[in-house]
Design brief:
This protein is of the alpha/beta class and 263 residues long. It has a single domain (8-192, 230-256), classed as Rossmann fold (3-Layer(aba) Sandwich), CATH 3.40.50.720. The chain is 46% helix and 15% strand. It is built from eight helices and seven strands; from the N terminus they run βαβαβαβαβαβαααβ. It is globular and about 55 Å long. The structure holds nicotinamide-adenine-dinucleotide. Nicotinamide-adenine-dinucleotide is lined by residues 13-14, 16-20, 38-39, 42, 66-68, 93-96, 116, 120, 144, 146, 189, 191-192, 194-197.
Length: 263
């Protein structure tokens, strides 16, 4: 939570829709101005998120590029801080999913998965820490992991491996950045009803020859809360990780899944 006359800024990648959008709206409610980062094709979504942030009385700016390109990530920070001032929180949320049996995964698809979900998060952690150190300020870095960082899903092997990597990177970055008063944590959502799960359901049901929607539906049986998550469930955890109540926490990847996995 930010006090009213203090300006604080959060950069969120993949903020045009889904979990990233919910995080942008929640952090705006918490008092942050928001740098909304996404790919150029998501311009309309980004504009809609900027409107939603401004309706909450906070400032917002859109920045466009690909997290797998380190120059784009550095530009997100440069353009965003030029518009909104010093950075306090960086949420490396952007990610992609692919559903394929390991035996069928093509090298180009595997490269893209590793580029976005591992290198993209790596470049975000690096750019965030560089900015906090240049500002001579503390800061909070937050990454998007997943329940598959603890127990993989079959047919999502490459995706699962990248999220396991985010968990490891989060621990290593916490160790390296602690001396700069930077904390690094990750959130590990379960099954969240977003466009990403629409894609996963479509691919799983196609591979299995089962009705569309059934792959998502059967996940509910394994969730103690009795429902799939909504993006706002995840945004509540990210709110905690972005604020002072999590100051004594670093290196953690926190499950937020309604009760699927236990760490
Ligand atoms: N939906 C789930 O069930 C779930 C579960 C666990 C973890 N996650 C993770 O949470 C994050 C958000 O997931 P979501 O469900 O909201 O996904 P989503 O597909 O709905 O949204 C992802 C956003 O990231 C953007 N993006 C994709 N590639 C990008 C790139 N290279 N550079 C910049 N932006 C890019 C997209 O344009 C989109 O706006 C992802 O890292 C995902 O792996 C999601």
């Amino acid at each position: 939570m930010v006090t009213q006359n203090q300006r604080s800024t959060a950069l969120i990648t993949g903020a045009g829709r889904g979990i990233g959008r919910a995080i942008a709206e929640r952090l705006a409610d918490d008092g942050f101005d928001i740098i909304v980062a996404d790919v150029p094709e998501a311009k309309d979504n980004v504009n809609s998120v900027i409107d939603a942030v401004q309706q909450r009385g906070r400032d917002a700016v859109g920045v466009f590029g690909d997290v797998s390109n380190p120059d784009d990530v550095a530009r997100f920070v440069a353009e965003g801080t030029t518009a909104l001032g010093d950075l306090h929180v960086f949420v490396a949320n952007a990610g992609i999913a692919q559903v394929d049996p390991i035996l069928d995964v093509e090298p180009a698809a595997l490269d893209r998965m590793l580029d976005v979900n591992i290198k993209g998060v790596f470049y975000c952690y690096q750019a965030a820490a560089r900015q906090f150190i240049a500002q001579k300020s503390s800061g909070k870095i937050i990454g998007a992991a997943s329940i598959v960082a603890y127990r993989p899903f079959p047919l999502l092997a490459s995706y699962s491996a990248t999220k396991w990597a985010v968990r490891g990177l989060t621990q290593a970055a916490a160790m390296e950045f602690a001396k700069h008063k930077i904390t690094v944590n990750a959130y590990a959502p379960g099954v969240v009803g977003t466009a990403m799960w629409d894609l996963i359901d479509e691919r799983l049901t196609t591979l299995e020859g089962t009705p569309r929607g059934s792959a998502l539906e059967r996940q509910v049986d394994g969730i103690l809360a009795g429902r799939v998550s909504v993006p706002e469930d995840v945004a509540k955890l990210v709110s905690f990780l972005s604020g002072p109540d999590s100051d004594h926490m670093t290196g953690q990847t926190v499950l937020i899944d309604g009760g699927i996995n236990f760490a």
